[in-house]
Amino acid sequence: MRIPSIRCAAVVLLASFSFSASAQGAATAKWSGKGTVEYVLTHKLHQVVGTSSEPEVVLVIDDAGLKVMARAKVTSFKSGNGNRDAHALEAIDAANHPLVVVKGVAPGFKPPATPGVVKVPVKAEVELKGVSIPREIEVTLDFKSPDRAEATFSFPESLEAHKVERPSLMMIKVEDALEIRGKLALEKK
Amino acid sequence: MSPNVVRAALVLLLAPAVAGAAPAGEPRQPAHLQLLWSPDPAAAGGADSMEFDLFGDTEQQKEASIDPALAGRIETRRTMLQTHQILGLSTLALMTTSMVLGQLNYSDVYGAGGGRTGDYLVAHRVATYSSAGAFLATATFSIFAPVPFEKDPGFDTATAHKIAVIGATAGMLAQVGLGFATARAADAGNARDLKRYAQIHQAIGYSTVGLMAIATSVWIF
């Protein structure tokens, strides 16, 4: 008699676990977005802004928090000078590393119940030229509605950290530090 | 009922369903079992783990986007254009030297207070021949560099550079032609033509150096 009662209890428990699991599944929200990402590169003689309007981004918000992954083809960045862009692609070895990828997590993140702006510290990893570097990025999420948000971010990056040989102009190398910034419109799927 | 009893019960309950579900030799890991056993994300690899791919790309898809042949062409282009840059700046320096020596020579030979010594003649000639050689070498490294990426059409600094370089090339060729004409005039003892050719040579020389300076400096913008 003891074993069937344990089984009964287990069945009830399993059912409740399954419900809980499906409820968790329902709580998992997947967002995707589009927008622009830019790099700002500084040389003693001038400043270069390269823009990509083809970044892809996927966000998952669940009970664990927020996970985000964004990527852009390195060939999609345009600085207004085709020759310079070709040089940049050479410097970052675009043939072997065609994507720049950013992954990040914000454990425990919960979207606000009402529309509003939230600053989210994201523990991220930036991959360029096949080299991943950890970065702390603050992302500003402006929740316009329950299924629409806008993300903006800006963070410093280093070329040499990614083993990128700094291109030179007039025998003067560009600065190692560059700024990465972006603005993305997100939609819940 | 303690959690351990519940877990044991779940294992007992699920064991028959799990058995035989996985092919022989493969680990039996039904996804829902893992979820039941590890509801805490920290225990399931850590909430701050970066081991995820939200795009779900396979390794095959990742490898398909890599082009090793392109990498070789990029490397060749990079080396050739870096050499082009060094040679270009050297050419500009040599052309400026030629221009200065040419002006000194002109003032000496044709100027009002010139000593007619011909002191700068050889130096100017050496500088101009060196400039022409460096100019040709610079052009070679640019013309024969592979073009691994398609460029967007439109006017940019590279277009301005090319226009200025085409102008400078025309100037260089004109100077060679003028050189022959001037030599003939000198051989014929035609002093009037000689001075006129020297003036044209001077004007073209300044223009050529100017165009070369433009070709070099447009990269700043």
Could you please describe the fold and organization of this structure?
The complex is a heterodimer of chains A (189) and B (221). With 189 residues, chain A is of the alpha+beta class. Helices cover 19% and strands 53% of the residues of chain A. Chain A has helices at 2-27, 82-91; strands at residues 29-42, 47-52, 56-62, 65-73, 99-107, 116-128, 131-145, 148-158, 168-169, 172-173, 177-188. In chain A, the strands form two sheets. Chain A has an eight-stranded antiparallel β-barrel with strand order 1-3-4-5-6-7-8-11. A two-stranded antiparallel ribbon of chain A has the order 9-10. In chain A, 30% of the residues are buried. Residues 12-26 of chain A have low confidence and may be disordered. Chain B has a domain at 86-220. The model of chain B is unreliable at 1-6 and 8-45 (pLDDT under 50). Chains A and B meet through α1, β3, β4, α2 and β5 of A and α1, α2, α4 and α6 of B.
For the CA atoms, what is the radius of gyration of chain B? 37 Å
- Report the uncertain regions of chain B: 1-6, 8-45
Task: State the total count of DSSP E strands of chain B.
Answer: 0
Largest sheet of chain B: none
Structural category of chain B is: mainly alpha
Can you count the beta strands of chain A? 11
- Strand-residue fraction of chain B? under 5%
Mean of all residue-level pLDDT scores of chain A? 86
Distance between the termini of chain B: 75 Å
Helix content of chain B: 55-70%
Strand content of chain A: over 45%
Helix/strand-derived class of chain A?
Answer: alpha+beta
Rg of chain A, alpha carbons: 22 Å
Strand arrangement, major sheet of chain A: 1-3-4-5-6-7-8-11
- Helix count of chain A? 2
Largest sheet descriptor of chain A: 8 strands, antiparallel, barrel
Mean pLDDT of chain B: 79
